[in-house]
Design a protein that fits this description.
It is a single chain. By secondary structure, the chain is an alpha+beta fold. It has 14 helices and twelve strands. Strands 1, 4, 5, 6, 7, 8, 9, 10, 11 and 12 form a ten-stranded antiparallel β-sheet that branches. Strands 2-3 form a two-stranded antiparallel ribbon. A hairpin with a 5-residue loop joins β8 and β9. α5 runs parallel beside α10 and α11 crosses α13. The longest helix is centred in the last third of the chain and has 17 residues. The N and C termini lie far apart (53 Å).
Amino acid sequence: MRDEDKKGRAEQTLTNRQGHPIANNQDMRTVGNRGPATLENYPFIEKITHFDRERVPERVVHARGAGAHGYFEAYGTYGNEPIAKYTRAKVFQQKGQRTPVFVRFSSVIHGGHSPETLRDPRGFAVKFYTEDGNWDLVGNNLKIFFIRDAMKFPDMIHAFKPDPVTNIQDMERFFDFVSNTPESTHMITFLFSPWGIPANYRQMQGSGVNTYKWVNTDGEAVLVKYHWEPQQGIRNLTQDEAEQIQAKNFNHATQDLYEAIERGDPPSWELCVQIMEDDEHPELDFDPLDDTKLWDPDKFPMVPVGRMVLDRNPANYFAEVEQAAFGTGVLVDGLDFSDDKMLQGRTLSYSDTQRYRVGSNYLQLPVNAPKKPVATNQRDGQMAFYVDAAPGQNPHINYEPSSLNGIREAEPGGEPHQPSYNDKLMRQTIDRTNDFAQAGDTFRKFEQWERDELIVNLGNALATCSPVIQDNMIRHLTEADPEYGRLVGEAIKSRSTSDHIGTTAAREGMEAAEELGHRTDGY
């Protein structure tokens, strides 16, 4: 055998993680071929104990996901103006400049292997590997959210997750929270319409949801909202259509994305940005930092600033999609935070979750690492497999400042943005809550089939709830639009009730399993 052939065969030889060749991968070491096994079974012990640890903790939210690699191409302008007027972020400056991206789509509430047809917001998280480091734009398909203060986030998720006793998601728990949280009225108007079940990821909008800031070279800021518009068009599903799909394929959205890229039909989205002056805008009937509200595109146009194309599938789902870690605090120079209270809370929570879930060195994983040199004085921690040192840096110096060839602070990219504050510390809801007006506007703007689907879905879900929850919801929906409240009230009354958990359809599914199951003798 030629030397190169021997080398090729050696490279294809099965080993363990220590590099030891494995000559028998079929049988553990035993006393005789019937056992018992021996304790010094190192190849087996290494294999099985690694298998026992193959899963990191599942995300509390956004567990079910799919992802892809691609690029973002900047337009270099905001309308007819150079974009530098508003932001100094390099990712946007040059027309035609391409920045690598990784995108993770997900559902929010349900578990890692849940059907992709369930009614749920969809996560839309984009990691830009810019020349100034990573920028994560972390949002959802819907442009608003259930709550405006991060203090309520754990309660919201607990209410929406399965019951801690039955382990069944329960619409009574869901609407118990929503009916006591009036600001959720707008979000559930979208969620229980066909917008609550996107047909797939390719034909789905995305949004940053929260209000951010752009900062220019002079340190001047504007408020911004980000929106992804699919160039494949937008498609949503009714509940009946979703159930038909789920009966045949509960991975349909992941498969659709993967196969589109594999056949050379890469999906693309245009990034549109709304701009508002950086102040409180007392002329509006809502607070521009309130993430339960839409900005009227007639007053604040959605201006395209670039285009994203996803053209490469992950080589390994776990290494890239499952371990991909996003955080709303990951911004580059020229981008900044607003005082949006939900954004402030997310900025702590998201990155903290990844340190717990993946590990303190999650940013050294290839999918999370910037595609530029990194030089920090952060050291050690679980699974540290290299040092973030600068070329030529003194390895003895892991602190700053230093006169002994340590790393130094960067030059500023422009004037700092320095908002000023003069107010009391307090725990208090914002002044302009206006919880119902936009929900009514959205209801009236829906097409008739969307309104019909919304009423049916809310009626089915609320029929399972206690009268006090039903009354609260009808009152909120009536505040939004009298016809909206009336129609949902009538839909609730037309539904039968039972002592079972969940909707009539859920009860029928449970009973059908027993009725349709074929009797058989044991074996």
